[in-house]
Design goal:
The protein contains six helices and nine strands. It is of the alpha+beta class.
């Protein structure tokens, strides 16, 4: 089932009410702070290790759980909370990063939860692919890559959210669904930064999850933007 959400604040408020949390919230579920400040609150992470403590299995058809995981991942990325982020990464499969819309399983880079947790200390320069329109290699450290191809916009404030639906695309091949078979994804989209650009400045972040026994596990981060 596909869903397109144009009112994320209302949706996450509804999720909060469903969970019995009666707090003023913005779309990502943060408690409102005086003066409009953006508080940092603890992110509830999935638990991979001790299955004996788990009492409920994951309902993979529940969109609210999927959206909640995606919102928490987007928040962790925006706040550079890599410890929290690593808790969502698939423990065996890892998470794969794609700089543009077309997923390339043979060349896109994959990182383990341990690498994500310690990425702030990783000074290795990796080759992530090739720049659109130029063809030059994208050679960056992980933090540099995240700044350019993951948190280039504050996706916790995306005006449109699609569940299992790509909201905006260009001339690049959108093959996410074909590559990540059996997975689900949430598309955080800015259809345009400035109306004068007529949509030629759109950008998106698609977070791909695989169902675990008790939680949604992050397996892919696919960045999209207008390309030549």
């Amino acid at each position: 089932m596909r869903r397109t959400l144009f009112f994320p604040c209302l949706l996450c408020l509804a999720i909060g009410l469903l969970l019995g949390i009666l707090l003023p919230v913005n779309w990502s579920g943060r408690e409102a702070a005086p003066g409009g400040a953006r508080p940092i609150v603890p992110i509830q992470q999935p638990q991979h290790a001790d299955a004996s403590t788990q009492t409920e299995t994951l309902d993979s058809a529940d969109n609210s759980l999927l959206l909640g995981a995606a919102c928490a991942v987007a928040q962790a990325l925006e706040e550079q909370d890599y410890t929290a982020l690593s808790g969502f990464v698939h423990p065996e499969r890892g998470v794969t990063f794609t700089p543009y819309s077309t997923v390339d399983p043979e060349n896109d880079l994959t990182f383990t939860p341990a690498q994500i947790k310690n990425l702030a200390q990783d000074e290795t320069v990796y080759t992530w692919g090739f720049e659109d329109g130029r063809g030059t290699p994208i050679r960056m450290t992980i933090p540099q890559y995240l700044e350019r191809y993951v948190t280039d916009r504050d996706y916790t404030r995306a005006p449109q959210i699609g569940i299992d639906q790509i909201l905006t695309g260009g001339n690049a091949l959108e093959n996410l669904a074909e590559v990540y078979t059996g997975c689900r994804f949430v598309d955080f989209t800015f259809p345009s930064a400035d109306p004068v650009n007529n949509g030629l400045d759109w950008s998106s972040l698609k977070l791909v999850f695989q169902a675990g026994e008790h939680s949604w596990l992050l397996v892919g981060v696919v960045h999209g933007e207008w390309t030549i």
